[in-house]
Amino acid sequence: MIALALAAGPAFAAGHGTDGLTERSFQAENRGNGRIACGAAIAHWYSVDLGQAGPGASVNARLWFDPAGGAVYLLNDKQDRLPVEALWCGVAGRSWATRSPIDLPRHAGPVAAGAAIAVGCAPEGDRLVCR
């Protein structure tokens, strides 16, 4: 998987800024003994690293939801909207191979203020499972 920094250019963007969007936080709590790493697919084979967390810590990210159509975005340093296709967390250093997909609600309509996508992640066999 090719990593793409949040400084991605407008070629991957679908608009600009947060006007009309609702903030939605993402949190993945590490309930295991090793490090986890989380990422987001933003355009086919490109991904953005959302961070890593040790035991008892969490990976946190700010997502933006479009209530008009249900799309979810990350913003880069230029405030370009990067459409999120998928979220996952896995064992650090092998996050893609050990990934647990994170449910990403996609529906038009309002989202309650402060609504978060929060999961707890723990190893099961050779994979990470986030619920």
Key features of this structure:
single chain; 131 residues; mainly beta; Immunoglobulin-like; 6-stranded mixed β-sheet; 5-stranded mixed β-sheet; 49% strand; disordered N terminus
Q: What does this 3D model show about the protein?
A:
There is one protein chain. The protein has 131 residues and is mainly beta. It has one domain: Immunoglobulin-like (Sandwich), CATH 2.60.40. The protein has strands at residues 2-3, 22-30, 36-43, 46-53, 58-65, 72-75, 81-83, 86-91, 100-102, 116-124, 127-130. The strands form 2 sheets. The protein has a 6-stranded mixed β-sheet, with no helix packed on it. It has a 5-stranded mixed β-sheet with strand order 1-4-3-8-9, with no helix packed on it. It is globular, with a radius of gyration of 14 Å. The model is unreliable at 1-12 (pLDDT under 50).
Helices, strands, pairings?
Blueprint: E1 2-3, E2 22-30, E3 36-43, E4 46-53, E5 58-65, E6 72-75, E7 81-83, E8 86-91, E9 100-102, E10 116-124, E11 127-130
Parallel strand pairs: 1-4, 2-10
Antiparallel strand pairs: 2-5, 3-4, 3-8, 5-6, 6-7, 8-9, 10-11
User: How many DSSP E strands?
Assistant: 11
**In the CATH scheme, what's the topology name?**
Immunoglobulin-like
**Which spans of ≥5 residues are poorly predicted at pLDDT below 50?**
1-12
Structural class: mainly beta
The total of helices stands at 0
In short:
This protein is mostly beta strands and 131 residues long. 0% of the residues lie in helices and 49% in strands. It has one domain: Immunoglobulin-like, CATH 2.60.40.
